[in-house]
Amino acid sequence: MGGFRLGVDVGDTFTDVLLVDERTGAAFRAKIPTTPHNLAVAVLNGIRDTCRAAGVDPKLIGHVLHGGSVGSNAILQGSGARVGLVTTSGFRQVLQLARSYAAEPLARPEDTVEVIERIGPDGSVLLPLDTGAARIALRRLRAARVEALTISLLNAGVNDRHERLLGRLAAEELPGVPVSLSAHVLAEPREYERTVSAVVNSYLRPQAARAVRDLETALAAAGITARISVLRNDGRATAAGHAAERPIAAVSSGRAGGLRGAAHFAGLAGFTDFLSLDLGGSSADVALVRDGRPRIDRQTAVGDLTLRATGVDVHTVALGGGSLVRVSKSTMELRIGPASAGALPGPISYRNGGTKPTVTDVNLALGYLPEAIAGGRIRLDLEGGRKAVAALADALALPTPERAASEVLALVNDKLFRALRLVSVRNGHDPKDFPLVVFGGAGPLHANALARIAGTWPVIVPPSPGTLAAYGLAGTEPSEEVVAAPGLTGAGPVRLRAVLADLVHSAGDRLAARGVPRTDLKAQADLTLSLPGGRITELLADLDSSALSAGDPRGALGIEPEAEIVELRVIVRGPRPPLLTHEPLPGRKNPIPDALLRTKKIMVDSTLVAADVYDRTKLLAGNIIPGPALIVEPDSTTLVQPGHAAKVHPSGCLLINPE
């Protein structure tokens, strides 16, 4: 059974669903309020809506590709599990010492215990584990009611014997509590990096396991037997069960999906190098893309944390439409985030019990939002939004609510500019060297103002920007990953060549079983290497026929002569599945009359102006929309400021430039 696949992007505020007909590539979208008590409920609601629009039975869905920002948002907002940490005696403060700068530890000092043991740097056992004392330490954590456990011992990266033994003891002393062994999360000698990565993995495991379990249960109850895959940080799909055990590998999978979609539409518009901004409900992701491909880094940054988890190179800040806006009582200064209203209760204007002002309420008060969003599911409370902003004005001693709203947006845009500048400068560039691709539900509202600050022209707004990440998820190519058995240290050319061929064949068999032709497969070797002095490095190399048949496979892969193979993975990918995009019919400079919905008053730069409001679905290629204007669609609204104009590109993208 199959014929349809589903891309799902779960955010803090909204869940985006994209249903794709695998025969034709036709796509159907839905934007649904996220259901925090059970994330699967929103997914099922989206399935019902998209299947109804497509006129198909949900049971025909054969594959669900799942991603989102729930994990990264949990880190940014401090809403993950309570984690217990077990370390070697004398290393209790490994998270606090860090690498000169320490982010707020996700395992509390009072939930950190030490055990008596010692493994040497060469893997030898210098001091056996004191199991009796270890049990006592574990019972302390049980009494503290930790919800997840991390075991990170000195030099476990070269010998995990004691970690595995402690894991067995923990299963007895803390039954039902998920355990992350640092050597299994990150097989490296770096103590801090290995520990913080394992702690983050534990921090997210209960939430990730619950999300997968709830989704499997909900789909089964609906009679949907689809295979579930979760997008990893690097854009590859992995099995849902693996993602539940190693959520750190998918902590920001929504980023990867969004960047896939952004690169696709930027390419259609003629741009292969660009900056991107994904502004959602609780977080903003900024990236630099060169040659149409997001840069893959061996590290993933979330807020102040840098994790050893391969992913797209994205900088994330805790800022979105749902970010709470407040005034500091001590300094009387504006503060935005990191806390978010989320889906429940949501912004005040959502009429769902929210009592604290958000960035969304500010945008509504300035006139930028329509009466209803998310395809009409949420009717906004304009009066409530205005009252929230008026309260901010009173707290700041400003003369009008509009002045307070302008101050909020100036701070939001300044934070976003700082993120754009950081990503550009650390890669040796100036932001104004690139156009800016914006997406996410809130991104197109802030894009024009942000480009004025950063000089990033043109601004490119893809079609359906609020569901672009789901589009990217649904377009993920099929892939399989196979890991070589340990023991490749010192392997000669003949053995290494045989291992590589066997792994490629095994992964190809799995894809063939899924109906992917062998003739369309591409393979890569993902290696973790140990260099003299204990330095660990990674290498990603293409595995084509010449590399597989080379007399010296190490040289063909680019492995340095003195390097030893710690871990070898082979990834085999099939072709990217087809996705149809909406290409508007050709038109002239002026939009057709039906595209103009109305004219409304909005506030731009503290000035009240009359803005035309357009229905994006009725715009034609070649149409030029001068500002001030609002271009609305079911999942987002684009603001074109005075002195600027948006042109409809044949790809369906809006290109905003100064006039």
UniProtKB/TrEMBL annotation:
EC number: 3.5.2.14
Pfam families in UniProt: Hydant_A_C, Hydant_A_N, Hydantoinase_A
Annotated Gene Ontology cellular component terms: cytosol
InterPro entries per UniProt: ACX-like_C, ATPase_NBD, Hydant_A_N, Hydantoinase_A, Oxoprolinase-like
GO biological process terms on file: glutathione metabolic process
Domain Hydantoinase/oxoprolinase N-terminal: 5-173
Source domain of life: Bacteria
Domain Acetophenone carboxylase-like C-terminal: 568-643
Assigned keywords, A-Z: Hydrolase
PANTHER family in the record: 5-OXOPROLINASE RELATED (PTHR11365), HYPOTHETICAL 5-OXOPROLINASE (EUROFUNG)-RELATED (PTHR11365:SF23)
Name used for this protein in its record: N-methylhydantoinase A
